[in-house]
Specification:
With about 200 residues, chain A is an alpha+beta fold. Helices cover about 20% and strands about 25% of the residues of chain A. About 15% of the residues of chain A have low confidence. Classes of the chains: A alpha+beta (about 200), B mainly alpha (about 650). Chains A and B meet through helix 1, helix 2 and helix 4 of A and helix 2, helix 10, helix 12 and helix 13 of B. Chain A: It comes from Citrus sinensis. Chain A: This is N-terminal acetyltransferase B complex catalytic subunit NAA20.
Chain lengths: ~200, ~650
């Protein structure tokens, strides 16, 4: 049976099998502890039988006015427990907290442009739940042909993305993905942008 | 059992099945476990549907077999078949991963780790190194197919460490990209081996990065705790304080602090002035002495992730491969943890004495030589002598003997009455004791060595004989010519610790006996070069130099051995023996797969990766790794020889 509970400090000593995966970043202590100190409700861990850590999600809530939003900083699942919809459950939990407790307008996240498995996961939408949306831009790079045309993308529940240039360590681009919540009735938060942005243009990191 | 069976039918194909049911299986008797395995096997055959599920069930059954301890009962040929079967299944399943993203795990990836584990077990049973090399080849092949499989890298760190290719083990460890808090939980895979190796620069880097991380966090922790308080997350305040304490009491942190200082002392042992500078920064060993005094009352935390360690080395203290095959099933980890705690505290207590012992030995040697050689020279400080005696007494107790009995033990081995087996597994500790005993005896003259064949040796002679005997004995062990890292690490420790500390004592003596300033020896003044002490020192410099030169010669010989000869040895261990048994079956299976691969079935990415795999390159890198480790040790020996030669020249001036 899986238990999803708030992440605690001792879990930092137990998440080796999750964090040794090359797609999962291990941040410095101050980073984790700041999230635990400020947004403990947005930091959850999924624990399996034998108290093994299956995965976790880190997030926060920030912004002002209509920019008040939940943000997924990191979500990761141990290879042993993948392909079981666990990441989706963790994301849903964070969305619920942002939506029902903090009354945010939307949730967003950044993902590495090269992290195809993660992008595919966000693209898939359940029947009852809209998928994540890429904010639009005019693409600087011609390679991402999947995201050029708005019409063809609508059929996949994906619009053109907001690309943040050199978001990751000044090297790799990041894609900004958003999902509107119930408070954003007019879905203003997911209106696509027409151009890529640079990290210094981001309102929130 | 029915519940487990039902769970298997629904989820048996998932990678997590075995870990999910592990705790439940522990309560079953061996017969029930065997029965369960049979029932699981028949369930999977009657419900086989799609390939990925079939693969999942296959893997699960193999894992369950391993979990219930069945594999230890299988015969050698059954184990060989199992390894072949797993590797075959991996290869057959590769087309299922054709369209996966390169960053995703390959379906059936665990099979190669499992095959490798079986091959290591075969090595343990038969002592045939061919299986060991095959285990390495399997994992290296897997990493060629997908370079991000961290489980393979961890296994390779341990396999290469065991075979004395520590530089290569270190490279694979670096490939894991261990940083921040992972250093606390993952360093145990490499740090213990590095600390007893000749890879000083790399060890220093590991220790420095780890200590910096820990010190930084312990410093910032208060601010972070206050941050939680400001945001009114009071439960987190308590949690942060408890976590900080847990890290502060980390056993690895304790060991790292002590070993970092000892590494500095080892690195500077060729030059007494530099060594004294290091000792000054360590407050002459006083702080570590306090640590040693308090260690008995300390409790430490173990924050390492032991789960990720290979089965044959569940903790750094244990390596089943070094002993005979024992057919163990599952060794309860709780007992190992208690053992480890006792070991760690004992090791830290003893090692913490070293800086102070070295400092006092240098002081004593210096004062004694002056007392001997100068008419109005200073007398050895009785406090120094008495402190040195007290510490020697403690050190002897840690070796399990009183001071007097410990003196008899070293004397017995030195005189040939007993073999070096009297030292047990702690040759390094005993030789350290002998070195510091000699230093103490310079001032105290209390040590009375027994007569042997009408001859009474001095403590100088005891140290000379022990260093020569032990070092050359370890060097000539047959196993060293082959693979194991353990014996090489003992040799490295003997040269870089007791021999190094003894060199410092000699340097201190020689420095103090040198004429001060530019005054030439006046005619009629006492000729110190003929004094018994001078004779002893000269003899010791000569003897120590001879020992290091022997080791250097031996290292040079092994480094120069042709690469082709070593490669031949590796590949001939993997050759078929004509009877369809023995190592090499999995290796040949992989070779057959590559030569007959179907690109359309496997896809471009996997095909290209497999075509690029070169077992010869793997073997070359392994040989180069071993050579690099020996070369680093040779450089250390050469610098010691140089330092001892300089000492001889200085003695000529006395």
């Amino acid at each position: 049976m899986t238990t999803i509970r708030r992440f605690c400090c001792n879990d930092l000593l137990r998440f080796t099998s999750v964090n040794l995966d090359h797609l999962t970043e291990t941040f410095n202590m101050s980073f984790y502890m700041t999230y635990l100190a400020r947004w403990p409700d947005y930091f959850h861990v999924a624990e399996g039988p034998g108290n093994r850590i299956m995965g976790y999600i880190m997030g926060k809530v920030e912004g002002q006015g209509e920019s008040w939003h939940g943000h997924v900083t990191a979500v990761t699942v141990s290879p042993e427990y993948r392909r079981q919809q666990l990441a989706k459950k963790l994301m849903n939990l964070l969305e619920d907290i942002s939506d029902k407790i903090d009354k945010a307008y939307f949730v967003d996240l950044f993902v590495r442009a090269s992290n195809t498995p993660a992008i595919k996961m966000y693209e898939k939408g359940g029947k009852s739940s809209p998928s994540w949306t890429f904010l639009s831009c005019s693409m600087r790079h011609e390679s991402s042909t999947a995201f050029k045309s708005g019409d063809s993308l609508k059929s996949k529940n994906v619009t053109e993305q907001r690309r943040v240039l050199r978001y990751y360590s000044g090297e790799e681009d990041g894609l900004d993905m958003r999902k509107a919540l119930s408070r954003d009735v007019e879905k203003k938060s997911i209106i696509p942008l027409k151009r890529p942005v640079t990290p210094d243009e981001l309102e929130y990191d | 059992m029915e519940a487990v069976l039902e769970y298997f039918l629904s989820f048996g194909h998932l990678a997590c099945f075995t870990s999910d049911v592990e705790d439940f299986l522990l309560v079953l008797s061996l017969d029930k476990k065997t029965e369960l395995l049979e029932r699981l096997k028949s369930s999977s055959t009657s419900h086989s549907t799609e390939s990925i599920k079939e693969l999942g069930w296959f893997i699960t059954l193999k894992k369950i077999q391993e979990l219930i301890g069945n594999t230890y009962k299988l015969l050698v040929d059954e184990l060989e078949r199992s390894a072949v079967q797993m590797s075959e299944m991996y290869c057959k399943s590769l087309p299922l991963s054709k369209d996966l993203d390169p960053q995703e795990s390959i379906h059936g990836e665990e099979l190669l780790s499992m095959a490798s584990n079986v091959l290591v077990q075969l090595f343990w049973r038969t002592s045939n190194y061919g299986y060991f090399m095959e285990a390495i080849m399997v994992l290296e092949f897997g990493l060629t197919v997908r370079r991000h499989a961290w489980q393979y890298k961890v296994l390779l760190v341990h396999l290469y460490s065991h075979l004395g290719a520590l530089p290569l083990a270190y490279e694979w460890y670096k490939a894991l990209d261990v940083k921040n808090i992972l250093m606390e939980t993952v360093s145990h895979h490499i740090l213990p081996q590095m600390l007893v190796s000749s890879l000083w620069v790399e060890s220093n880097n590991l220790l420095r990065d780890y200590l910096r991380f820990m010190d930084d966090h312990l410093r910032e922790s208060a601010d972070l705790t206050f941050l939680a308080y400001r945001h009114r997350n009071y439960s987190k305040v308590i949690e942060f304080v408890q976590f900080k304490e847990r890290l502060q009491r980390s056993s690895q942190y304790l060991v790292a602090r002590v070993e970092s200082s000892i590494l500095q002392l080892k690195q500077n042992a060729n030059n007494i002035e530099e060594e004294e500078s290091v000792l000054e920064n360590l407050k002459c060993g006083v702080d570590f002495l306090e640590l040693s005094n308090e260690i008995g009352s300390k409790s430490v935390t173990f924050n390492e992730d032991w789960q990720s360690r290979p089965w044959w080395t569940p903790t750094p203290d244990k390596n089943y491969l070094l002993g005979p095959f024992a057919g163990i099933s599952y060794c309860p980890k709780e007992n190992l943890m208690k053992e480890r705690e006792a070991n760690i505290l004992g090791v830290v207590e003893r090692k913490s004495l070293l800086p102070r012992l070295i400092y006092l030995s240098i002081q004593t040697a210096s004062a004694c030589v002056k007392e001997n050689f100068e008419v109005n020279g200073s007398i050895c400080d009785p406090k120094v002598s008495s402190e040195l005696k007290y510490l020697l007494d403690r050190y002897a107790k840690m070796l399990g003997f009183s001071l007097r009995d410990a003196v008899e033990v070293v004397s017995g081995v030195s005189s040939g009455l007993n073999s070096s087996e009297a030292f047990g597994a702690d040759m390094v500790g005993w030789l350290n004791f002998a070195v510091f005993l000699n230093a103490w005896n310079l001032s105290s003259h209390e040590v009375v060595l027994p007569d042997v064949n009408g001859c009474r040796h001095s403590t100088w002679q005891v140290v000379n004989t022990l260093l020569k005997k032990c070092i050359l004995e370890v060097r000539s062990m047959e196993s060293l010519v082959c693979y194991p890292q353990l014996d090489l690490s003992v040799l490295v420790q003997l040269v870089t610790e007791p021999l190094a500390w003894h060199t410092l004592v000699m340097q201190s003596c020689v420095r103090s006996s040198l004429p001060s300033g530019k005054k030439k020896k006046r005619s009629g003044s006492a000729d110190h070069s003929t004094s018994p002490l001078s004779h002893d020192i000269r003899g010791s410099v000569q003897s120590t130099s001879g020992v290091v030169e022997e080791v250097a010669k031996w290292l040079g010989h092994h480094i120069k051995k042709s690469e082709d000869e070593k490669l031949d040895a590796i590949f001939s261990s993997l050759e078929a023996n004509g009877r369809g048994e023995g190592p090499g079956q999995v290796f040949r299976l992989l070779g057959t797969l590559i030569s007959s691969l179907n690109e359309a079935e496997l896809g471009d990415r996997i095909s290209q990766a497999m075509k690029s795999w070169s077992p010869v390159d793997v073997a070359r890198k392994f040989v180069a790794g071993q050579r690099a480790g020996l070369s680093a040790f040779l450089r250390i020996c050469e610098s010691k020889i140089k330092s001892l030669q300089a000492l001889k020249q200085q003695m000529a001036q006395v």
